[in-house]
Amino acid sequence: MSRLVVRGARIVDPSQNLDEVCDLVLVDGIVESIVDGGVQSDDAQVIEAKGLVAVPGFIDMHVHLREPGFEYKETIASGSHAAVAGGFTAVAAMANTDPPNDSAAVTEFILRKAAQARKARVYPIGSITKGMKGEELSEMGEMVEAGAVAVSDDGLPVDDVNVMRRAMEYATVFDIPVIEHCETPDLHPGGVMNEGYWSTALGLRGIPRASEEISVDRNIVLAEMTGARFHVAHLSTSGALRRVQEAKARGLGVTCEVTPHHLVLTDESVKSYDTSAKMKPPLVTESDRLALLQGLADGTVDAIATDHAPHHMDEKSEDFDHAPFGIVGLETAVSLCLDRLVRAGVISLSRMVELLSSGPARILGVPGGTLALGAPADVTLLDLERRVRVDPDTFASRGRNTPFAGWELTGSPAKTIVSGRVVWTRE
Ligand SMILES: [Zn+2]
Ligand SMILES: [Zn+2]
Questions:
Q1: Where are the beta strands (DSSP E) in 218-376?
Q2: Peptide bond before 99: cis, by omega within 30 degrees of 0?
Q3: Which residues participate in catalysis according to the annotation?
Q4: Ligand with the closest atom to the CA of 158
Q5: Hey, what's the torsion of the CAs at 87, 92, 96, 100, to 10 degrees?
Q6: What is the reported pTM?
Q7: 96 CA distance to ligand 2 centroid (A)?
Q8: 154 Cα: distance to centroid of ligand 2 (angstroms)
Q9: Closest CA relative to residue 289, chosen from 256, 258, 307, 264
Q10: CA 51–ligand 2 middle distance (angstroms)
């Protein structure tokens, strides 16, 4: 029997309305008890956690681990290591690998690699269409059977409305969410940043905010028609948020996530042609950013997810038009949220924990997101006072492409526990 006691931490678990200094007892990979102190620890490994906060292990429901096919950018081993080094006990891996995850064989491969790495839990997301070509539906049943928890062609939107309709109908059979990268590419050939003041000033081709909103609209209509659970990936604009809010008010199964970068940056970050500020959807305006903050506070936003998208330095060193879209996020997200959201007074610590644990767990239908008795012993320990300076050279990820290099932030993950086993400790 393996027994781990986390002693004297402030336990913050919104799923149980808990915020109290207690001892947390983990036995054989599950939460055995939360006690008021004085727990017997003769036969246990003890973590002295006075001054730290223990929360349900964070779940990042949107990452790109790049394997198979793009191991020079990231591997399942390096990506799941980056996850635990960022305080995440689980991640959901998008399907846009090579080959894409459009079959049980690839889903099984991902799970096998993740098990070998023994870091974070990895939940594969299957593609919506075969080869992510947007034409023929993937074998959802086989992928779900093998362990896929959702479907998405993320990286690309599903353009064909009839294909999306059938995908939603099919997904309801397995009760999995359809996660869509909401973009309308025909609207902005060659667009590389938000269309507005800065794209004009910089002479770069724009992507109008309507690109996201048109797609969100279409998919909400389809979700209503099919009864599917529709999840908006990396929602970025105030107009899209308003549509999600209306859909929820009408009782539809619509959910959304936002990224830390859309919560703290605007398109002004592009002004020095910095390719680490190039991502999809693009960084938008201050009024969009403020709307997203409001959406966190009022409950419209269901999850914070990083859209961790590692690229090789050589790729990101291309000029702005040619560099690939995307930034890494696993090792900066928690400090950004603690500093810019909680310390800044935008949301409470408890709400932040919800957005990073029970929120994504509920959408994906995966275990975790709670420290209730009998739950998986996945725990993130936080040090709210720790000052950190973002240094990409220290990342466990193979990606170094972050706009946050050099940022000084207060608050950081301190230790990550997966299934009752300590998998990462901050030096
Ligand atoms: Zn995307
Ligand atoms: Zn993505």
A1: 230-232, 254-258, 303-304
A2: yes
A3: 307
A4: 1
A5: 130
A6: 0.98
A7: 9
A8: 5
A9: 264
A10: 35
Q: How far apart are the first and last CA of the chain?
A: 28
Q: How far is CA 4 from the centre of its chain?
A: 28
Measured distance CA(354)–CA(99) in Å, rounded: 34
At residue 199's C-alpha, the angle toward residues 193 and 205, to 5°, is: 60
- Distance (angstroms) between ligand 1 centre and the Cα of 156 equals 7
Q: What is the full per-residue pLDDT of the chain (427 aa) written as tens digits? A: 899 999 999 999 999 999 999 999 999 999 999 998 777 777 889 999 999 999 999 999 999 999 999 999 999 999 999 999 999 999 999 999 999 999 999 999 999 999 999 999 999 999 999 999 999 999 999 999 999 999 999 999 999 999 999 999 999 999 999 999 999 999 999 999 999 999 999 999 999 999 999 999 999 999 999 999 999 999 999 999 999 999 999 999 999 999 999 999 999 999 999 999 999 999 999 999 999 999 999 999 999 999 999 999 999 999 999 999 999 999 999 999 999 999 999 999 999 999 999 999 999 999 999 999 999 999 999 999 999 999 999 999 999 999 999 999 999 999 999 999 999 999 8
200 CA to centre of ligand 1 in angstroms: 24
User: Any idea which residue has 């466990």 for tokens?
Assistant: 396
The token pair at 198 is 């800065």
